[in-house]
Amino acid sequence: QSIDLIVSDIRMPGGDGVYLLGEVRKKHFEFPPVIFVSGFADVTLAEAFHQGVVAFVAKPLSFDDLINSIRYQLLDVRDRWREGPKTPVNRRFTRDLPSLAQAEEQAALLLGRGGFFLSIDDDLPRVNEIVGIKLNLQKDVMTLEGLAVCRWIRNGNGPTKPRGAGLEWVQLHSSAVEFLSRLCTEQKRQPFIPKE
Question: How many CA atoms lie within 13 A of 171 on its CB side?
């Protein structure tokens, strides 16, 4: 019998959600999606998304937020990213990058299954702010364009952990969806939003 989705608290009697996530990811890098629920700061958002969590719902719990998150994560990625939120976007980030491989080597851009880390020298977006994104990967002949919501920020910690934001796609052009799906499957990318 297959499991469609896991909702786990981080703190549980006899174990914890981080251990459970690790065991699940040993069996498959992507499925089932895992949503964390917690009222504690046992794990940072950056760490949770890096380990493969697809959503984080804070306590005190809003059951509407949890149900909406579950419904969203159970959608096929093409449906999930087809239409973005109807919220006005005040900020856009555009980058012309030589290639994905070079951008990842320099930690300017790190792609995950549901989002990405983007190195940002200007003002960082606020957590939960929706921003416009256009990433031109020149040698890959691919433009990743759409909307993303900021899930976490980092003020920088040297060349391997530059200043930037962890962003989750909420809208993405269909050709980019195919590119990302193929890339993540072929390379078995576990992080939902990579942090390093």
Answer: 14
